[in-house]
TrEMBL record:
GO terms for cellular component: cytosol. One of its GO terms (molecular function) is thiaminase activity. Keywords: Hydrolase, Thiamine biosynthesis. Pathway: Cofactor biosynthesis; thiamine diphosphate biosynthesis. InterPro entries: Haem_Oase-like_multi-hlx, Thiaminase-2/PQQC, Thiaminase_II, Thiamine_Salvage_TenA. PANTHER family: BIFUNCTIONAL TH2 PROTEIN, SI:CH1073-67J19.1-RELATED. It comes from the Bacteria. Catalyzes an amino-pyrimidine hydrolysis reaction at the C5' of the pyrimidine moiety of thiamine compounds, a reaction that is part of a thiamine salvage pathway. Its EC number is 3.5.99.2. Belongs to the TenA family. It is an enzyme of class 3 (hydrolase). Homotetramer. This is Aminopyrimidine aminohydrolase.
Length: 231
């Protein structure tokens, strides 16, 4: 069994939980509360900024120049495809500069991005790839599942379109193939560590939906901007 297949099997219950999370289901149905999506877009912009940095770190850690160049290209892609999409959403949702300036990463967004840096710190390029692969792969599977949903909210339809597209499929396949190539060359101990990064990232992907659905916040905050909305 390919290393990627072993990983996919190990996280199946976690990914199933993501597929059935109310955030994902309601996004597909178009019934998701816009406050949750708005919150998600802000937290995800923070996440993507760090994701691009981790991709660039991975590029710096790669053994060959082709992979370095490819990872740098992927980092640019995160900016061009996803962060720009979020910028459009922010405009459409009327998120103000003031709101952006007072942004605070939520506990889960902070923990998830920290996990990716920690994986990078663990050793080699394979660690980085294993930690970032669920982001590509899970979103691809969600995109495939939601592809046929026609939520009557244009923002949700645009989100689904982004992840259900063919360019995205190629991106995911390329990273899976890369991970399998690396798996052939590293030790059993390395593979175990990579498996753990993948598993933890999968758990955080689930937590990320949950964070947005519940408008998660730190237990003690000077000014809780979401307190009024939760009340
Ligand atoms: C929490 C969270 N996880 C995964 C993605 C999806 N994603 C993030 S970077 C990347 C690769 C380059 O586009 C992909 C697919 C997201 N947006 N937010």
């Amino acid at each position: 069994m390919l290393f990627s297949e072993q990983l996919r099997k190990a996280v199946d219950p976690i990914w199933e939980a993501s597929f059935h999370h109310p955030f994902v289901k309601e996004l597909g149905e178009g019934t998701l509360d816009l406050r949750c999506f708005r919150y998600y877009v802000l937290q995800d912009s923070y996440y993507l900024t760090h994701f691009a940095k981790v991709q660039a770190l991975g590029g710096a850690m790669a053994d060959d120049l082709q992979t370095t160049a490819s990872m740098a290209h992927h980092a640019q892609n995160t900016y061009e495809a996803e962060l720009r999409l979020h910028e459009t959403f922010m405009k459409e949702l009327g998120i103000t500069e003031e709101e952006k300036a007072s942004f605070v990463p939520a506990p889960t967004a902070y923990a998830y991005t920290s996990h990716m840096y920690r994986a990078a710190f663990a050793g080699h390029f394979g660690d980085v790839l294993a930690a970032i692969l669920p982001c590509y792969w899970l979103y691809y599977e969600i995109g495939e599942r939601l592809k046929h949903c026609k939520p009557n909210h244009p923002i949700y339809a645009k989100w689904i379109e982004a992840y259900g597209s063919d360019w995205f499929k190629q991106l995911v396949e390329q990273q899976i193939a890369r991970l399998n190539d690396i798996a052939e060359t590293v030790s059993a101990k390395d593979l175990e560590r990579m498996k753990q990064h993948f598993w933890i990232s999968s758990q955080y992907e689930y937590l990320f939906w949950d964070m947005a659905y519940k408008l998660e916040h730190w237990p003690i905050e000077e000014e809780d901007v979401y307190a009024k909305e939760r009340a």
